[in-house]
Design a protein that fits this description.
- This protein is mainly alpha-helical.
- 62% of the residues lie in helices and 3% in strands.
- The protein is built from 14 helices and 3 strands.
- The chain has helices at residues 4-19, 29-48, 56-72, 79-101, 108-125, 132-139, 143-153, 157-170, 184-200, 205-236, 243-253, 269-274, 291-298, 317-322, and strands at residues 260-263, 278-281, 302-304.
- Strands 2-1-3 form a 3-stranded parallel β-sheet.
- Helix 12 links the parallel strand 1 (260-263) and strand 2.
- Helix 1 runs parallel beside helix 3 (56-72) and helix 2 packs parallel to helix 4 (79-101).
- The radius of gyration is 25 Å and the shape is globular.
């Protein structure tokens, strides 16, 4: 699976540690450990995958909530009640941050250069954005209605503000389907808060029943799409996803060897590397008319592109043909 799952797990674990704080025992050592653990996990999540930074606002909201719970029963109200939990959280975060950064100090200059180039690439990718609501509707049409109903039933302005901050952070890079997964913890928190508010409200039993039934229907629809429909489709397309097929196809077309190959097809990466290729993947728009790009094309042995997709406007077929590349064959899957 994708590493995003681990990043989400670590971030949600930080929220869970804060939510499990016992507000009735403000000076408990166990609470201090939970605050420390939450800070550590918050820092670690960003090193698991940088996109986890969009979940930092959610962790901070949980920190404020947990600290308030402790402060209500603390024998010394005021800033002293907040100092212990916040300092434990910050200490855990700083220690984890230091430990994660230590291996990078060996070649710090190279790492900083890599971060700088990555930032340039992300800023360039941010110029072309996809619609976040549309991506959710396409993959799970039940989720947005559940969210809208939850906001009607209960508006948690802190969570809404966090979602806004997270979306602004996302828009600094290119938003694509696997990146919007990081908004799911916010959506789950909003929906769960609405369900809790309904059962704690003074609504009539019949009204509670219909609201609960509607929520179950929408969540059941999501469960059907995620746990039944998509695995079924994946099983039907198992042959098309077979990794060896990529290797056989590429081996028959170009063959093994230290070839320099340019492409945007990420799916062939492992097959290409197993054939000994030096693979170059275009990720951001390039200056097609620059001398540097023309010189780069001259150093490439083969180019793999899709006829139906003009390389997502990164490079046109005419660009590589003008550099001397001759269309060779069309590749198809069985």
């Amino acid at each position: 699976g994708r590493i995003d799952s681990w990043a989400l797990f670590v971030s949600v674990a930080a929220c869970w540690a804060l939510r499990s704080v016992d507000g009735h025992r403000p000076e408990s050592p166990a609470n201090a450990v939970k605050f420390f653990l939450a800070g550590s996990l918050g820092s670690l999540s960003i090193f698991v995958w940088p996109t986890a930074a969009v979940l930092v606002p959610l962790i901070l909201v949980e920190l404020v909530s947990a600290t308030r719970a402790v402060a209500r029963t603390h024998p010394e109200p005021g800033w002293r009640a907040w100092f212990g939990p916040v300092s434990s959280f910050c200490a855990g975060g700083l220690i984890a941050l230091t430990l994660c950064l230590m291996p990078l100090l060996v070649n710090l200059e190279a790492h900083l250069l890599s971060v700088e180039r990555s930032a340039i690439g992300h800023r360039a990718g941010a110029l072309v954005q996809l619609s976040i609501p549309n991506m959710y509707v396409i993959r799970s049409p039940w989720l947005l209605p559940a969210l809208l109903l939850s906001l009607v039933l209960r508006r948690d302005w802190a969570l809404i503000a966090c979602v806004a901050v997270a979306i602004v952070m996302m828009l600094q890079t290119q938003v694509y389907p696997t990146r919007i997964v990081y908004l799911l913890p916010y959506l789950v928190a909003i929906i769960a808060g609405a369900v809790t508010a309904v059962y704690a409200s003074a609504f009539a039993p019949r009204r509670k029943f219909w609201i609960a039934a509607f929520m179950v229907l929408m969540l059941g629809g999501n469960l059907w799409v995620s746990a039944v429909q998509r695995p079924h489709l994946a099983a039907q397309e198992a042959n098309a996803r077979y990794p060896q097929q990529f290797k056989d196809m590429l081996g028959d077309t170009i063959g093994p060897g230290p070839y320099r190959v340019l492409t945007t097809e990420w799916d062939i990466y492992y097959a290409a590397r197993s054939l000994g290729w030096e693979l170059y993947l275009l990720f951001i728009p390039v200056d097609r008319d620059s001398a540097a790009f023309r010189n780069f094309l001259e150093s490439i042995d083969f180019v793999i592109l899709r006829e139906s997709n003009e390389w997502k406007k990164l490079v046109r077929r005419a660009d590589v043909e003008s550099a001397g590349f001759i269309p060779h064959t069309r590749l198809t899957f069985k």
